[in-house]
Design a protein that fits this description.
The structure holds two protein chains of two kinds. Chain A is α/β, with parallel strands linked by helices. Chain A is built from 14 helices and twelve strands. The N and C termini of chain A lie far apart (about 75 Å). Chain B has two domains: about 250 residues, no CATH class; about 45 residues, no CATH class. By secondary structure, chain B is mainly alpha-helical. Classes of the chains: A alpha/beta, B mainly alpha.
């Protein structure tokens, strides 16, 4: 038998294996000590200020006496839950913005039920988002407010800003897909396909078959983009933090967020995939939301575009393309050397991102 | 004897199960990749008992310790165990492969590895090939297909079993077989739902038969697409294994670095991820995945049509009817919101004309 290039004798291998197994058993025991009350998400205090159907608009409790006079409205993606921006005390974009004197509102899209399968992008943009913006404007007596759109929520915010520029003072987009057919597409874009050929996923058939697109189905698709890192390595790395309850609970919080995937309202999903992913109509000025044409040239307000350099869900080039398609004279792009999830979860990003946002907003009054 | 309303309860459960089934199809597909690998027989495994016994203990521990835990804790605990099992299989294969190489002279390591992985590939692909061959036996497939509908109507299933050989003929264009098949269903129908209904029942039976046959074709398409998908995935497993072994072989004594199990595992994960990600980007994969998705959705659509045919017979509202109702409610709700908004805007504008204050649109 050839010598294994491991310097690993069978007895050593068994010993190491036994150690690994022991560690896994200890890990399971540690997990059993995590009580149901240990895992809190969405930590900052907030109040409900508006509700429409399953959608809720929250305002976070101020952390400073006199906050910046123009509030910011956070528009998160329809996929996954928005509490990732306020996951835990030391990893909360919301909390850090509050500390920096920003008045923060957030739209929670809720969990679409089967009866919501007919909700369209018209309902989400011209309906819920527009109504939430109006509520905030009215509460503060302001003609315009600031918008921060995240991921798919960034794309929706971009559409909203193009349709209602008179209501948006400053626009911030974060890890936002804009050009869905960039060179070297991300895997997600590649899987969904271009155009409506037979070789692509048939979204009409999918929505007709499913009604709402199940959250688990969406989630599995995301996990398969990095199957072994997200399905195997992640849990092995968990072994290294097992004896630290705080780190373990942090890990479980992130797990809770990752697997807390709402179903997608069927009609809205159909339009988003067909018009944005397959048709790439946003940058062509061909997207229609309700009876309104989305023209990105109407985006003339100051724009801060934040993207992740290692993003595997939204390729950086897809976000960077924004500059070419809007007519904003005041445009700033800022990247961070992390992946998509790192934008929310990385402690280092959380040190730098909130001051960047707060500073940029305050400079623009 | 069971009354008709007991069937209704079963139907509701069945519909729920069917809804879940399609969402879980991708999960099962993923598990089957791992299953493919676990299915490879390994001669002379170095530590079979260690692995098996440990896993049994771990599973007992998992059940005992996380009974009262939140779901994400249970999921995380299972997450610890499941990759371990797959890795163990991989590790055992790697060691066995190594054992099969000659100590020195003769063929070089790479040639031996190519031969070994050739055998592995052949074995991994045996499963889809066997399954492809099974697709040729229409009667057996029909029985499998009808088995899925067992809970909905046992008498119908019995009829389906008797009809299995007839379906094979019907599918290949023998019209008389189709007539015979219809008659079989008709007999069953008479014995079950027939007494409940009068003349329109004939229409129900024909509709149901037609839906069942259409559903059968969609099911066959789905099975084919699923096998094509497994073919390309099985091939990637082999390529990943080959690369993993090549990376080990490329280490010449004196070795630049000593590996322990954890490093070996990291190397394996990197290698497999790299191989799968390469494959995920290929046109072939994109095409195959899209076909799998599309056939799964087409089958699900037929499945619903069959379910709804049963529901119709039993006077139970169907998914489509509920969707239609929801659609109407949605439209009315939207219309009402627009009217309320227009009214409020009108009132606020009128007020602002009196007070001179700027009006804000109210949602």
């Amino acid at each position: 038998m050839a010598e294994l290039p491991l310097f690993l004798r069978p007895e050593d291998a068994i010993r190491q294996l036994t150690e690994l197994n022991h560690k896994i058993l200890q890990g399971i025991e540690c997990l059993s000590r995590v009580g149901p009350d240990d895992i809190h998400v969405g930590v900052s205090p907030k109040e409900e200020v508006y509700r429409e159907d399953g959608v809720v608009l929250y305002r976070y409790t101020q952390a400073v006496g006199a906050p910046f006079h123009i509030p910011i409205l956070l528009v998160y993606a329809l996929v996954n839950r928005p509490y990732v921006v306020d996951l835990q005390e030391d990893r909360s974009l919301v909390r850090n913005l509050l500390k920096l004197g920003i008045d923060v509102y957030l739209i929670d899209w809720g969990y679409p039920r089967r009866g919501d399968r007919w909700l369209t992008l018209d309902d989400y943009v011209n309906g819920y988002t527009n109504n939430c913006v109006d509520v905030v404007r009215k509460r503060h007596g302001l003609p315009q407010i600031n918008l921060l759109g995240i991921c798919q929520g960034g794309t929706l915010s971009l559409c909203y800003s193009a349709l209602y520029p008179e209501k948006v003072k400053n626009l911030i987009t974060m890890v936002t897909p804009v050009d869905f057919h960039v060179e070297g597409d991300g895997l997600l874009n590649r899987w969904v396909g271009r155009g409506n050929g037979k070789e692509n996923i048939d979204v009409d058939l999918m929505v007709n078959a499913f009604g709402n697109i199940p959250g688990e189905f969406m989630n599995l698709g995301f996990l398969m983009l990095k199957p072994f890192q997200l399905g195997v390595r992640k849990y092995l790395e968990m072994l290294d933090i097992m004896d630290n309850k705080e780190k373990l609970v942090n890990f479980l919080r992130m797990e809770e967020w990752i697997f807390d995937s709402p179903d997608q309202a069927g009609e809205a999903y159909r339009q988003f995939v067909k018009d944005f992913y397959q048709g790439n109509k946003l940058i062509k000025g061909e997207v229609r939301i309700g009876d309104k044409q989305v023209n990105l040239h109407n985006v003339r307000m100051p724009v801060l575009n934040i993207y992740a350099e290692e993003d595997h869900l939204v390729p950086p080039a897809s976000s960077i393309a924004l500059k070419q398609h809007i007519h904003a004279e005041d445009y700033t792009a800022q990247s961070f050397p992390v992946g998509h999830i790192g934008m929310y979860a990385s402690g280092k990003v959380q040190q730098n991102l909130p001051p960047l946002i707060a500073g940029w907003l305050k400079e623009r009054g | 004897m069971k009354g008709p309303f007991e069937n209704v309860v079963d139907l509701s459960e069945q519909v729920e199960n069917l809804v879940k089934a399609c969402a879980e199809s991708q999960t099962k597909m993923w598990e089957s990749w791992c299953g493919l690998f676990r299915g490879v027989p390994v001669q002379g495994m170095p530590f079979p008992d260690v692995s098996t016994q440990w896993r049994e203990i771990a599973m007992q521990g998992l059940k005992a310790w996380t009974t009262e835990s939140k779901q994400e804790v249970k999921d995380a605990a299972e997450g610890l165990l499941s990759p371990h099992a797959v890795f163990m299989r991989f590790f055992e294969l790697a060691l066995t492969a190594w054992k099969s190489f000659p100590p020195q002279g003769g063929q070089d390591g790479q040639t031996m590895l190519t031969q070994y992985t050739g055998q592995l590939r052949e074995h991994l692909l045996q499963f889809p090939e066997r399954a492809v061959r099974s697709l040729e036996d229409t009667s057996k497939l029909w029985q499998l297909y009808m088995g899925k509908w067992q809970k909905i109507g046992q008498p119908w299933l019995e009829s389906g079993r008797r009809a299995s050989w007839r379906v094979g003929e019907a599918a290949t264009g023998d019209g008389s077989a189709l007539i015979e098949l219809t008659n079989l269903y008709w007999d069953t129908y008479e014995r079950t739902f027939g007494w409940l209904l009068e003349s329109p029942s004939l229409g129900h039976t024909r509709e149901l038969n037609e839906q069942l046959l259409k559903g059968f074709n969609a099911w066959i398409d789905l099975r084919r697409a699923s096998l094509e998908y497994q073919f390309i995935c099985a091939d990637v497993w082999t390529k990943a294994f080959e690369r993993f072994m090549l990376k080990l072989i490329s280490r010449k004594p004196p070795y630049d670095k000593v590996l322990d199990l954890r490093e070996l595992l990291d190397l394996w994960i990197d290698t497999v991820d790299e191989a799968f990600l390469e494959m995920f980007r290929t046109d072939e994969y994109v095409r195959t995945q899209a076909r799998l998705m599309n056939t799964a959705m087409a089958y699900r659509t037929h499945e619903r049509a069959i379910t709804e045919a049963f529901l119709k017979i039993s006077h139970v509202p169907s998914r489509s009817e509920l969707d239609e109702t929801h659609h109407r409610i949605y439209e009315l709700r939207k219309e009402m919101k627009q009217l309320k908004k227009a009214l409020q805007m009108f009132q606020e504008e009128r007020l602002s004309r009196h007070t001179g204050e700027q009006a804000f649109p109210h949602p």
